[in-house]
């Protein structure tokens, strides 16, 4: 039977899902908004229809009906973890490709999820639901500061506050509660001890209600403002014993709650004690799922579709093997230093390629990047026989990646991948916070060199060529991200580098050569 599957999403994930749908012999259908009328993902759909918003449940259900859909895949973000959406899809007679509503409800309630983890015998940190600042103070006195406040009804870095001193409890409590209410319509908070330098380890699981497997773990420790930037699989700091324990606990929890379809069990790993603690469940496809696919050879999207349409998972744990190492870098349309969004039209777009390189992209030359949506424009994924090869391959791929017309975080990613702490694999969730000053200076220096050479070369062309070179380069991006930089200083360095290129000055001293 040829199924018609509506992909209720946009961008790179819509393209990625459409490819797997086609490989299964099914028909991908899509939706788009007026903002996305020229979006790349539309070209991968057999048919599509315009909707006012990717969050409008009624319009998306109507689109599924009008397109003659048999099933709906929500991708990630938007409605992917909304149990009301999955309920409506199922009520209308469609197959929902994802966890059932009751699993979504459990995963979305962080407090219930922690209770289930504790009952399943999975380690958790001490925690309690708090209704006022006094309870936070009492918890801090018992377990010590710092503590962390978290929203019970959501994730994504919203409703989180780290309380380092008792004097800050009342102020941060009110901030967290207000943010949780605004983001999730749920002002409940819970508190737990704050691990200062943890690893963020997550385990990919698949289940059908009876059979459960894990696809090993991912290390997602490299974050800024609770948002992941670089992910890899497997974690570079886990030995076989720790890996077996952590993945075993993830499967234990999945089995206990009768999990169905693809999901992720997230853990905090204390680098000091080498102990792990359950954090939350993500009841959807994760952004970083490709690194797991690269080390296992298993297409997670295809498995999602098979479980949803056939009701059974055919994979067996004993047959799943891990091979090599994979790293993913999120390519975002943003200033590499301020990380502010960079909307606009992409003028040049050339992806890297070659052995072990994969790019999941939702854009091409001429694509417009809007501020309406997440700034993620693509994911650069590499694979190597070991971590050293994967890092070298990522360096090569980042150097090959050419995007002009907008700012991107590629300079930041280069600085991260080349940093000795990242290369050692010991980086924690505090990596960027600890090393931000050095990384920022590294970005500035590299970009300054690029600009200087560019301006020097442009100076040899006519004004029209000079204008095109400067406006179409990183010049504007750099100037927006550097505080108090004077153009005259850049011009002086431009002359210096031009002179170096012509052999007129010494590279060591930057002085004119004697004739």
UniProtKB/TrEMBL annotation:
Domain Biotin carboxylation: from-to ranges: 1-437
Keyword annotations: ATP-binding, Biotin, Ligase, Nucleotide-binding
Lineage: Archaea, Thermoproteota, Thermoprotei, Desulfurococcales, Desulfurococcaceae
Keyword Cell membrane: no
Annotated ranges, domain ATP-grasp: 114-309
PANTHER family: CARBOXYLASE:PYRUVATE/ACETYL-COA/PROPIONYL-COA CARBOXYLASE (PTHR18866), METHYLCROTONOYL-COA CARBOXYLASE SUBUNIT ALPHA, MITOCHONDRIAL-RELATED (PTHR18866:SF33)
MF (Gene Ontology): ATP binding; ligase activity; metal ion binding
Name of this protein: Carbamoyl-phosphate synthase L chain ATP-binding protein
SMART domains xref list: Biotin_carb_C, GARS_A
Organism in which the protein naturally occurs: Staphylothermus hellenicus (strain DSM 12710 / JCM 10830 / BK20S6-10-b1 / P8)
Recorded superkingdom: Archaea
Keyword Calcium appears in the UniProt entry: no
Matches recorded under Pfam families: Biotin_carb_C, Biotin_carb_N, CPSase_L_D2
């Amino acid at each position: 039977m040829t199924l018609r599957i509506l992909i209720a999403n946009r961008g790179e994930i819509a393209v990625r899902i459409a490819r797997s749908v086609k490989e299964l012999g099914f028909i991908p259908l899509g939706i788009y908004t007026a903002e996305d009328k020229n979006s790349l993902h539309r070209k991968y759909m057999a048919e599509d229809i315009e909707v006012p918003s990717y969050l409008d449940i009624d319009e998306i259900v109507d689109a599924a009906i009008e397109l003659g859909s048999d099933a709906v895949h929500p991708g990630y973000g938007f409605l992917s973890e909304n149990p009301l959406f999955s309920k409506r899809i199922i009520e209308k007679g469609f197959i929902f490709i994802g966890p059932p509503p009751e699993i979504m409800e459990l995963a979305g309630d962080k407090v219930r999820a922690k209770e289930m983890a504790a009952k399943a015998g999975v380690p958790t940190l001490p925690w309690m639901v708090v209704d006022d600042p006094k309870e936070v103070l009492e918890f801090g006195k018992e377990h010590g500061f710092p503590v962390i406040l978290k929203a019970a009804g959501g994730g994504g870095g919203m409703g989180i506050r780290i309380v380092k001193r008792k004097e800050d409890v009342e102020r941060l409590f009110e901030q967290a509660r207000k943010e949780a209410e605004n983001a999730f319509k749920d002002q409940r908070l819970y508190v737990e001890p704050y691990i200062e330098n943890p690893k963020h380890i997550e385990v990919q699981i698949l289940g059908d209600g009876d059979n459960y497997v894990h696809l090993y773990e991912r290390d997602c420790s490299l974050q800024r403002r609770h948002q992941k930037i670089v992910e890899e699989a497997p974690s570079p700091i886990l030995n076989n014993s720790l890996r077996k324990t952590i993945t075993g606990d993830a499967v234990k929890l999945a089995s206990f709650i009768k999990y169905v379809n693809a999901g992720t069990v997230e853990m905090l790993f204390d680098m000091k004690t080498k102990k792990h603690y359950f954090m939350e469940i993500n009841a959807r496809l994760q952004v970083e799922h490709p690194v797991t696919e690269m080390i296992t050879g298993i297409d997670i999207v295809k498995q999602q579709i098979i479980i949803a349409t056939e009701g059974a998972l055919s994979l067996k744990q004993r047959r799943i093997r891990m091979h090599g190492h994979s790293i993913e870098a999120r390519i975002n349309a943003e200033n590499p230093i301020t990380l502010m969004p960079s909307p606009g039209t992409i003028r040049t777009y050339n992806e890297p390629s070659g052995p072990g390189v994969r790019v999941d992209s939702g854009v091409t030359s001429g694509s417009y990047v809007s501020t309406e949506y997440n700034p993620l424009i693509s994911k650069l994924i590499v694979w190597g026989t070991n971590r050293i090869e994967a890092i070298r391959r990522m360096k090569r791929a980042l150097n090959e990646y050419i995007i002009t017309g907008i700012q991107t975080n590629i300079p930041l990613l280069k600085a991260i991948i080349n940093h000795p702490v990242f290369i050692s694999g010991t980086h924690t969730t505090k990596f960027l916070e600890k090393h931000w000053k050095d990384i920022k200076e590294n970005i500035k220096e590299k970009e300054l060199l690029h600009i200087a050479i560019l301006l020097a070369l442009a100076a040899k062309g006519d004004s029209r060529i000079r204008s095109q070179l400067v406006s179409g380069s990183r010049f504007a991006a750099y100037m927006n991200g550097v505080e108090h930089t004077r153009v005259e200083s850049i011009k002086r360095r431009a002359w210096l580098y031009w002179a170096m290129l012509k052999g007129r000055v010494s590279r060591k001293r930057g002085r004119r050569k004697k004739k």
